Amino acid sequence: MSSLLIKNIGEFFTGDIDRPQAAVTSLLIDGAVIAALDPPPETRADAVLDAGGSAVLPGLVDGHVHPVFGEWTPTQDTIGWIGNYLHGGTTTFISACELHVPGLDYENLTPDLVTSLAVVTAATTGRVRWSGARVHAGTVILVPGMTEAHFDRLAEAKSILAKFIFFPLAARRDEALRYTQWCRARGIRTKVHTGGVSRSGLSQICGYDVLSWLQPDVAAHVSGGPIPMSDGDLDRVIDDTAFALEICSSGNDRSTHRAVNRLRAKGQLKRLTLGTDTPGGTGVIPRGMLRNICAIASVCGVPPAQAIAVATGNTARAHGLDVGILAPGRPADLVVCGPVEGSAGSSIADAIAHGDLPGIAYVVAGGAIVVSGRSRQTPPPRHTLMFSCCGGHAGGFAAT
Ligand SMILES: [Zn+2]
């Protein structure tokens, strides 16, 4: 398919937290990118989707996943997890390191081993669009003893992120700061595990004291993954630093409430990013990103359109990606959805404000329709949508 026109859009969410909703009623996709918002009425396209008044929002960006190889995750003995998440609206996945490879010995990680693991994962899991989704894999597990040449290899493999999780930050501060510099010189961002020890039992504990000098690009799961830092540390991280702060499904709900409320009250929602921190001990959660949006909107008081922007444009921007924003020239990754029959919500914004799951009908990733007519992970939306192509009659707009 080379062009797709979506018309009769009832609600349009841009993914841009500064202006998260717009009065856009149609959108033209040409190839893998968005060609126009509200194109002229005589616009012709290879296919037309009549959204029937339902909502369009950017494909969700899961800022924290742990892939292993392709769609297989050994942590919960599951295959096909990426396709299942895609049916929950997630079109982009960002690896927070590939530490779940069976047999990996966390106590004997060497610079060559961690670099090679990232390079191999980037060249395999990161190379292919699994079920149509994009996985940014090849996130290195930083360990002591790495040289600049290791970071050259990571840059060559097109890694976008490096992770401090097992690295002894307090004991090797200068080395950690050197790594951060080497990453930034190569366009690689840094993320650090925060809070208490993870499922591995070997990750480093990290709170305000470390974050204040490390200054990562993104502090991972600040409300816990699974164990959060103290309330006092969380407040100081919000008040006295400026980097991106991630909330994950793996966290502590009470700390999530505290963090998001404080960011909202201080007008700093632009720093907030979302992820699931799955697959892992928290499980495999295909609707995880939708649940995150509903949680921060319905329980923490984030306006629904801004909650969507946090899960899309904010999370993409914090990781240096151009997805998550619906504007001409941006990647054509989007979700067409509506309130579910029986939901308290009169619109998607209203449903999310109530904490109700949206019903997904279509997902487009990289310009291709990857979920068509019905998600296998959500109930259907109450709207009636109509798809026509290959000479089908679309009315108003014409399908060639
Ligand atoms: Zn994680």
Number of helices: 10
User: How much β-strand is present in the residues?
Assistant: 15-25%
Can you summarize the main beta sheet?
6 strands, mixed
Tell me the strand order in the biggest sheet: 3-2-8-20-21-22
Keywords:
single chain, 400 residues, alpha/beta, six-stranded mixed sheet, six-stranded parallel sheet, 10 helices, 23% strand, globular, binds zinc ion
Précis, in short:
By secondary structure, this protein is of the alpha/beta class. 26% of the residues lie in helices and 23% in strands.
Could you characterize what this model shows?
By secondary structure, the protein is of the alpha/beta class. 26% of the residues lie in helices and 23% in strands. The protein has helices at 81-86, 111-123, 148-156, 173-185, 208-214, 231-240, 253-265, 288-298, 304-318, 348-354; strands at 3-7, 11-13, 21-22, 27-30, 33-37, 44-45, 47-50, 55-58, 60-65, 72-73, 78-79, 90-95, 134-136, 140-141, 161-164, 189-192, 218-219, 244-248, 272-275, 334-338, 359-365, 368-371, 386-389, 398-399. The strands form six sheets. A six-stranded mixed beta sheet has the order 3-2-8-20-21-22. Strands 14-15-16-17-18-19 form a six-stranded parallel beta sheet. Helix 5 packs parallel to helix 6, helix 6 (231-240) runs parallel beside helix 7 (253-265) and helix 8 (288-298) crosses helix 9. Zinc ion binds next to loops.
Question: What is this structure's SSE topology?
Answer:
Elements: E1 3-7, E2 11-13, E3 21-22, E4 27-30, E5 33-37, E6 44-45, E7 47-50, E8 55-58, E9 60-65, E10 72-73, E11 78-79, H1 81-86, E12 90-95, H2 111-123, E13 134-136, E14 140-141, H3 148-156, E15 161-164, H4 173-185, E16 189-192, H5 208-214, E17 218-219, H6 231-240, E18 244-248, H7 253-265, E19 272-275, H8 288-298, H9 304-318, E20 334-338, H10 348-354, E21 359-365, E22 368-371, E23 386-389, E24 398-399
Parallel strand pairs: 1-7, 2-8, 6-24, 9-12, 12-13, 14-15, 15-16, 16-17, 17-18, 18-19
Antiparallel strand pairs: 1-4, 2-3, 4-5, 7-23, 8-20, 10-11, 20-21, 21-22
Helix pairs in contact: 2-3, 5-6, 6-7, 8-9
The site of zinc ion has 5 residues, from loops.
